[in-house]
Amino acid sequence: DTAVSQTPKYLVTQMGNDKSIKCEQNLGHDTMYWYKQDSKKFLKIMFSYNNKELIINETVPNRFSPKSPDKAHLNLHINSLELGDSAVYFCASSQDMDSYNSPLHFGNGTRLTVT
Amino acid sequence: AQRVTQPEKLLSVFKGAPVELKCNYSYSGSPELFWYVQYSRQRLQLLLRHISRESIKGFTADLNKGETSFHLKKPFAQEEDSAMYYCALAGGTSYGKLTFGQGTILTVHP
Questions:
Q1: Which of A44, A47, A99 is the best mutation test for B, with the most CBs of B within 10 A?
Q2: Could you read off the pLDDT of A10-28 as tens digits, one per residue?
Q3: A83 three-state secondary structure
Q4: At CA B76, angle to CA B84 and CA B56, rounded to 5?
Q5: Do A41 and B103 count as a contact with CB atoms less than 8 A apart?
Q6: CB A35 within 8 A of CB A107
Q7: Of the partner residues B43, B44, B98, the one whose CB lies closest to the CB of residue A99
Q8: Contacts (Cβ under 8 Å, ≥6 apart) of B65
Q9: For residue B31, which of B40, B22, B21, B23 has the smallest C-alpha distance?
Q10: Which terminal residue of chain A has fewer beta carbons within 10 Å of its beta carbon, N or C?
Q11: pLDDT digit string (tens) for B73-102?
Q12: Would you say B52 and B108 are in contact if contact means Cβ atoms under 8 Å apart?
């Protein structure tokens, strides 16, 4: 199935723990993103990578570290989780960074709950 | 700074009624605007983009630079239009970055 897939779908963990969310796309896209959807449903970009190179880092705490082993994968590692990290995290990809001609393809999201 | 505002969190209409989902933006340059939609149990996906002047599933959206708006319209709503709709803006140096609005949940009643 051609898509952006992210795992896990749900993640419940305690404060202080370290966790990772994985994302893979088989669309042959060059650019991948992480977006965070908060409790008010705002979608905000966190990071974007183009051909494994970090392009956008939107003032995200250092506890969040994206890693792109190849252009088909963009994982998100979060250290020392805090209650405020609870959100839905969406991975997305696009053909390239031309946002107009390369629409975003989203994953299904990972709902992270920090207790 | 760029910002997108969708003033209505929830919008309910009856089948066959016209629907308009409002979107206003703040951006000093020449904006690129999009509507994304998320149907129940489906991924967020692109619905339409302003410069294409396209009509997708009966929806249209016109960019009004004077009013800094990009409202989404459909003359006759269908039940299958029920979904979450996001307005999004891309511009200038934020190449590759979309700024999303808060989203509007549209419910079309039979």
A1: A99
A2: 999 999 999 999 999 999 9
A3: helix
A4: 60
A5: yes
A6: no
A7: B98
A8: none
A9: B23
A10: N
A11: 999 999 999 999 999 998 765 556 788 999
A12: no
